Amino acid sequence: MRPSALTLAALLSATALAAHAQTPADPLHVYGPGGPSPAMRDAAKAYEARTGRAVAVVAGPTPQWLDQAKADGDLIFSGSETMMTDFVSALEGRIRAEAVEPLYLRTASILVRPGNPDGIGGLEDLFQPDRRVLVVNGAGQNGLWEDMAGRTGDIAKVRALRRNIVVYARNSAEARQAWIDDPTLDAWIIWGIWQVANPDLADVVEVKEPYRIYRDAGAVVTETGRQDADAQPFLDFLKSDEGAAIFARWGWRTGQP
């Protein structure tokens, strides 16, 4: 017996509903800079494994994702307090300054060529003549090298380091490419977490006191994210012991000194 048109319509409707029911929910949309992204992506995978909700992390220089974040961002993360303050302005009311949660700290370090062929032992070695130094001036590292060199109040150290800086990159991704492209660069002042994420690219030299500087990664739920049941729980997960362990694996300082 052939099915009636009404029966066919009912079957098609049921099939469409079933297909819709099997379609996974949109992922949680998370945006921020490249530095914290390896840890953030691992945290996103762990959260999805625990809850079943996918988390899509888009990271890199701000101009690459800012417009899309304005449209669908649920959570924004930063690479420093100054960077997050810039995001509050750039996102035009979509995040609240008072809702920002500082997460974990990272230390400024010196990256050197594998094997440290120049024997660089710390920041004071970069005050010596004829060093070729790469720094980042922007993307959460505004003034970082100056803060490090100037911590003792000795202007001669700031002058000495400035004389040796040959590249001022606008962001960490640009600095990474400069390091690859120019093998004459001896040292790269940046966060130590970059060496953890790129172990074959450089070795790390610790910056000792009194020159050590810390800045944080923070996160905030957007006004859009406030309507999503997983946005705040994902931020809570980042702050949990499991989240802290993930960030620690990527070189972040997650506890007391």
TrEMBL record:
Membrane as UniProt keyword: no
CDD domains: PBP2_PEB3_AcfC
UniProt entry keywords in alphabetical sequence: Signal
Signal peptide feature range: 1-21
Name of a matching Pfam family: SBP_bac_11
Protein name: Accessory colonization factor AcfC
Species this protein is from: Brevundimonas aurantiaca
